[in-house]
Predict the structure.
Amino acid sequence: MSLMSLDNLSQTWPRYLPLLLLLAGASPLAIAYYAQLVQGYDPCILCLYQRVPFAIVIVLGIIGLIRPALAPVVGIIAGLAFATGMSIAFYHVGVEQHWWASAASCGGGLPEQMSIADFQKQLTIKPAKSCDSVDWILFGLSMATYNVAYSCALAVVSFIGVDKLRKASSS
């Protein structure tokens, strides 16, 4: 790539930021829904919480496509959303590895006092999936572990991108 091409790319890439955010948010959600709906892996509550930051990033990407002037603000919020997603995923990895117990209602339990009718009703309800059980592993790592790395990388890239936008607008 020539120096002229690199300079042109550095000036035009902010136009692609919203589209990149849209793809960065949609890809892991597509994988999660594929695993759930096609492969039959039931998500636990922490798995569902991990999807929220990606949904937020999709909305931010759409906002950025509609209002390109908001790219720096969209980038900052996206970076914060990715950092939040990384934190949730790291917490989930800790629960999976039994480093700590989950504060979320993963798996639940029965109340101490329950009538026979309530007990029978509980038997018909599918219990929540336990957050410390891992259904899918690749190279010894769970989906939550991959999410930590993916979200961390995207948070860093988002903040670097915002810094580049700030420097480009000041020059």
Remarks:
- The mean pLDDT is 81.
